[in-house]
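Troubleshooting: if your tokenizer reports a length mismatch, compare your output against this known-good record of 280 residues.
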Amino acid sequence: MMDYKTIEEGVRGKAAFATGGTMGIGKACVEAFCAAGINTVTVGRSAEKGKALEKEINSWGRGKCTFLECDVTDFDRLRTCIDLTVEEHGKLDILLNCAGYFPLQVPIDKTSLEDYKAVLECNLVAYFVTMKHALPYIRTQKGSIVNVGSVLGTTGDEGSVAYCSTKGAIHTMTRAMAIDEARNGVRVNELKPGHICTEMFELTTARQDDPDGFVKYSDGLQWMERGGTAQECAYAALFLVSDWASFITGIDLHVTGGFEIGEGPKLPNPYLAWGPMEKK
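Known-good structure output:
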């Protein structure tokens, strides 16, 4: 009989660097990593949220959590934080790229060049920077990278040219990286969430004239008829960085409740701030 380890046995004592760890999916991933025994350094812009997360996780007595204040578009600081991770733990096994934001949905002619560049820098260029500078350390450990993309990088969405540009690029960038790094023993995969009920979704819901209708509409986009949780995304991320996924690289793992499959009517979203797009 083969010797089957638990996921925790396979990751305990590893060191991870994670962006976007103070809220939403990123926070859930940091919690899951540390709960499994992975020592995790995470970065974010809110020192208050970061230090509170660090204190809570370290009270569990499992993997150590360290928070470093950093805006991921400050690329020099981002590189420094990666180096500080290695200084603290002596190695780097895992990189989780999760920092990003979903801008207000508007058509392309309502998106300024400056706003477009800002989305690219946060959602895409920061991923490039972290992978570029983390890879020398991760290669030494024959570790793994998980890039958090989005199902919208495949399907597209109304009023989301900037956002979908970044998530579509993450999809192909992940595959290209998986090809390049296989020779170095490094696995590179993408986590593709769909409609996930994070703090951002709650804020969007609160701004609606009809919050209940908006939630019902959003839940109906999945065959499972509900939004996912950040914790469900974290479980998938933990699997991808674990030994259980040791022969998996270059994939996009959908955590979507069936958002992207099957057939259905194509109807404009009535909850966009600028209203459903009119046919010309």
